[in-house]
Amino acid sequence: MISILTFEDKRGREPYMEYLNGLKDFSTRIAIEKEVRKLEKGLVSNVKAIKHQDVQGLKELRISRGCAHRVYFVNEGQEIIILLAAGRKADQKRDIERAVENYKELKQQKAAIRLPI
């Protein structure tokens, strides 16, 4: 089974969890969590690759519930997925840039402790 991890920035914040916990609609929160759990089983029907000039491997999990939500993540090998950010479809451009910055920070963190990406 694939492991799901959340990215934690230098200040100890987890952007994905902050978004999820900030949702007022509990049923939307559950719907997002269910879709993320499907990734653990390798089910990727709602996943789209994001093309960005600064990073490769960024992906978007699309959840069409309420105002439509997105979860941005990267794979670390075949066994680990790291959740970088999340947001509403309406804020997609901003959220992709946030995910890109989080991914760059993740790579710097890993380089500092000498782990391969």
Number of helices: 3
End-to-end gap? 19 Å
The chain-level mean pLDDT equals 89
Q: What percentage of amino acids are in beta strands? A: 15-25%
CATH secondary-structure class: Alpha Beta
Main β-sheet, in a few words?
5 strands, mixed
Uncertain spans: none
The beta-strand count equals: 5
Under CATH, the homologous superfamily reads: RelE-like
Side by side, the strands of the main sheet go 1-5-4-3-2
- What is the alpha-carbon Rg in Å? 14 Å
Identify the CATH architecture: 2-Layer Sandwich
Class by SSE composition: alpha+beta
Helical fraction equals 25-40%
CATH topology: YaeB-like fold
Q: SSE order in H/E notation?
A: EHHEEEEH
Description:
With 117 residues, the chain is α+β, with helices and mostly antiparallel strands. The protein has a single domain (3-112), classed as RelE-like (YaeB-like fold, 2-Layer Sandwich), CATH 3.30.2310.20. Helices cover 38% and strands 25% of the residues. The chain contains three helices and five strands, in the order βααββββα. The protein has helices at residues 15-22, 26-40, 92-112; strands spanning 3-6, 47-49, 59-63, 69-76, 80-88. Strand 4 (69-76) and strand 5 form a beta hairpin. The longest helix is centred in the last third of the chain and has 21 residues, at 92-112. The radius of gyration is 14 Å and the shape is globular. The chain starts with a strand and ends in a 5-residue tail after the last helix.
